[in-house]
Amino acid sequence: MAITIVSTLMIMLGYFLMLYGAVGFIQDKRLFSSAHKEYLAVIPDKKERFKGAHIIGWIILIVAICLFVGAFAIAIWDGARNQFGALKFFARFITMLYAMEIYDILFFDWYLLCRSNFFIHFYPELKSVDRSHFFGYNKKSHITHFIIYIPVCAAIALGLGVLF
Predict the structure, then answer these.
(1) pTM of the predicted model, to two decimals?
(2) What is the mean pLDDT of the segment spanning 88-112?
(3) Residue 135 pLDDT exceeds 90
(4) pLDDT above 70: residue 39
(5) 3-class DSSP state for residue 28?
(6) Helices (H), 21-138
(7) How confident is the model at residue 161 (pLDDT cuts 50, 70, 90)?
(8) Count of helix runs (H) and strand runs (E) in the chain
(9) How far is Cα 91 from Cα 9, in angstroms, rounded to an integer?
(10) Which residue of 31, 42, 83, 93 has the smallest Cβ count within 10 Å?
(11) pLDDT over threshold 80, residue 164
């Protein structure tokens, strides 16, 4: 259970770092594909905020990807070490991915998007946008993720269960 929690926290940190690197340093609208359309309409195409900002952003993104890979590697290694079957692997991965999705809904969508000034700090142009109706704008995407995670985790768990 402890490894599942640690892996989940690693994923959450990686997810936040991806957002921070993209929004705070890289600032390329192509990385904001899931952003609300009203934000995308107002966000200008920016050049580097300061010399080296893009490099810092890409380093942050690489660290985030390493956290994702590391979280799953630790989860798989521990499961193999403890002779997990397919059911235990499935439970671990579905827990990790569902926790990540709930984190996305509560922290990213509800808090960062609707309640805080996170995005406004990096894009003052967004002050004029009414954010009160943003929560839930991407609910279809979240529902799709919750549904897709089940067969994906099942397939991975079956593969790992057979392998280990």
Answers:
(1) 0.84
(2) 92
(3) no
(4) no
(5) coil
(6) 37-42, 53-81, 86-103, 118-122
(7) confident
(8) 6, 0
(9) 16
(10) 83
(11) no
Torsion sign across C-alpha atoms 57, 58, 63, 64 = positive
How far apart CA 72 and CA 116 sit, in angstroms, is: 30
* φ/ψ bin of 83: left (φ > 0), alpha (ψ from -120 to 50), beta (otherwise): left
Q: For residue 2, which of 76, 78, 84 has the smallest C-alpha distance?
A: 78
Between CA 159 and CA 164, with CA 163 as vertex, the angle to 5 degrees is 120
Total residues found in the chain within this entry: 164
Report CA 150 to chain centroid distance, whole Å.
18
What tokens does 25 get? 């340093």
The confidence score (pLDDT) of residue 34 equals 65
Question: How many Cβ atoms sit within 10 Å of the Cβ of residue 37?
Answer: 8
CA angle 30, 31, 32 (to 5 degrees): 90
